[in-house]
Amino acid sequence: MTAKMNYDFKDDWLIEQLGFDSRYLGKTEAIMALGNGYMGSRSSEEESYTTEKRDTFVAGTFNQFDENEVTELPNVPDFWKMEMLINGEHLSLEKGEVESYSKTLNLKNGELTRKFIWSYKDIKLELLFSRFVSMARKHYFSSKVEIKNLSKEKVNVQIRSGIDGQMTNSGSQHFTEGEKGLVDGKYMQMMPQTSQSKIDFVLTATHQLKAEHLSERIEMGRRQILMNYFFEIAPNTQAILEKRGSIYTSIDKEVKDSSVKGLRELAVSEMKAVEEKSFSSLLKESEEKWQEIWQKHPIEIHSEDRKDQLAIRFAKYHLHVMTPAHDERMNIGAKGLSGEGYKGHTFWDTEIFMLPYFTFTHPEIAKSLLTYRYLGLDGAHKKAQENGYIGAQYPWEAAWPTDGEVTPVWGAADIITGQATKIWSGFIEQHITSDVAFGVKQYLDVTGDRAFKEEKGYEILLDTAKFWASRLEYNKEKDYYEIKDVIGPDEYKEHIHNNAYTNYTAHWNVNFAIQLAKKLAKSHVELYKKLDEKLDLSTIIPELEKKLPKIFLPTPTKEGIIPQDDTYLEKKILDLTKYKAADGVDSLFHDYNLEQVNEMQITKQADVLLLLLLFEGLFEKELKLKNFEYYEPKTTHDSSLSLSTHAILSADLGKIEESYEFFKKAINIDMGEYMKSSDDGIHAASLGGIWQMVVFGYGGVRMVNGRLRIEPHLPSTWDKLTFGFDYLGESIHVEISKEEMVVTKKENGNNITFWYKNQEITVKNTITILLKEETKQ
After folding, report:
1. Residue 261 marked in a binding site
2. Is 432 within 8 Å of 422 (Cβ atoms)?
3. CA 499 to CA 477: how far, in whole Å?
4. H or E element, residue 760
5. Which of 277, 603, 605, 682 could be cross-linked to 639 through a Cys-Cys bond (beta carbons 3.0 to 4.6 Å apart)?
6. Domains in the chain, please, with CATH?
7. What percent of the chain lies above the pLDDT cut of 90?
8. pTM of the predicted model over 0.90
9. Average pLDDT value for residue range 58-65
10. What average pLDDT does the structure give for the chain?
11. 349 known member of a binding site
12. How high is the pLDDT of residue 9?
């Protein structure tokens, strides 16, 4: 029975896999991952398969396995596995007959269900599995299995279930075994500790079983504590096993006593407190918290293809299950909490692709994510100093905020030489520093958060500019400052000079810092003195003022093309048609190595085009159009970050049908039929990109030069789009049809202004704009 994806468009909330195929377990393990921001877990099957990847992570618990490896989120002991023997036969869907298999994630309440009928020899069972990670109780999760006997005779069942610490990160074991034991005869506990970071974990599990002729036996093995249950199921009757568990760690902020003893007692008390609550009532608690999320600025898309509506819900679901909103010492991993890919590290993906969702809809979470960058200033200083610079040079990959750079040095094999490829991003992909500054500035523009900007935001903006002051290199012959030996957003071009995106964003960072410092020196004297003492602004700002006019900014050729870097336009052009049509990514590297690709006009993802999108106020529409038509055919979109940028920019340029094609490809990165796309985890930044395509692209919302603009352009297949966002403390609701746009804010509160087609519009309560440019109040 071959697995395939199915989407239930009756209520636009369900993602379903029909049929079972053990070759493709990774797909639903990742895209149906469960979590609440504190923890995340892949949705692996209860029974084991050799092709599975059983991963559960707790945000922020980074550990370094060996001094030659970088820190990563450790794969914690597994709770979900249940080994079942029926009449002595292991339950396995790789043998016997499987009927009516379905595995479903309900996005509305975060419940995963799996059901099927399994027949083997004289055994026939109907099984229904359910599980969830609670949004109401941060440390808690629960699962349940209902087993109905469809056989002619009774069946004897054995279930082994508990806590399995024999988990690794692809072979790296991050935990010392620790103590384990049984409390009050029913609460299993395991207390491992991470080997290097010395974080204590307390994992607790208990079972409730309804079955006939039940007996049980505890079992302890190496890194395991399990319960064995033996029982019978008569024909046409069922047994029900419910399992409840929790995870606590010694870095949990809200825990008063973080000793192992204190955590053990707290975990058991929580289990006792919910003992009388049913599985359904605990799920209901979680669902109510989910409803708060869904009711905050809901998005409705009236499209010919109902998958479009499901896609935005899928994106929002994952943005919340993977974001550690509870702790500003933590941030979002590039695979969220759904897989080992990128080791749980944080990239520029947060500020450019995911942070905008939170900035516009959940500013308190955005503030926490940016506070992480503020806490990371020491790590950024450390990296700058190691490279001979000053100021804050943010790490390309970040883990615990004070760690500094944690990018691995070596990566995949070179197909030509057979040697490991050096990962240069951690050394020379430096636009991350201005990306962080961009995220801070966008947050300040949208929220007007005075406390944050004075306590943290201004310091980040000035400290990052201080880095660029030391990074700029003077070219005496040409009398300008340049940025040599970098990688831009296009990671297929290494060791290039004057990457347009890097130079322009550095220039913006420096220019903004100069204006900010001057403003503070005049109107916020005490704050300026404090920052001057910390950052030596009285020395740095004059230096920046001297260098700013001479920072080299690549200018368009006579054909109107902005060079991606000093040599890009001189390189060989390769027809990418077959590579763009291939399933998955990196098919180019079946034929070429990175060194060869480096010498061709091939772009991995939006680079110049991302610059044109983020800083659209700097460039005329005609210039953007020329560059779009030049660079897109040369872009493989091998990065999941690429398609959303192209979708939004092409919508801006009036290429609505082309934009919608990019949109469809983007939502299929994880939701598509290709069953291997998400094996290492979901594509977190791409999910942030889905929200941006809908709200920024088709809703037309944008911050341009610090001002709000709303200029919608719906795809032809969309009849209506409604969404909302927060702006300067006001809640804004937007409803767009083919004929008009209605913008509404609450009656009480401040008026807001926005720009529409170069016209400034003030909203006191509700305003209707006819999309033929006629406006009425």
Report:
1. no
2. no
3. 19
4. strand 759-763
5. 605
6. 4-267 (2.70.98.40), 300-670 (1.50.10.10)
7. 91
8. yes
9. 97
10. 95
11. yes
12. 64
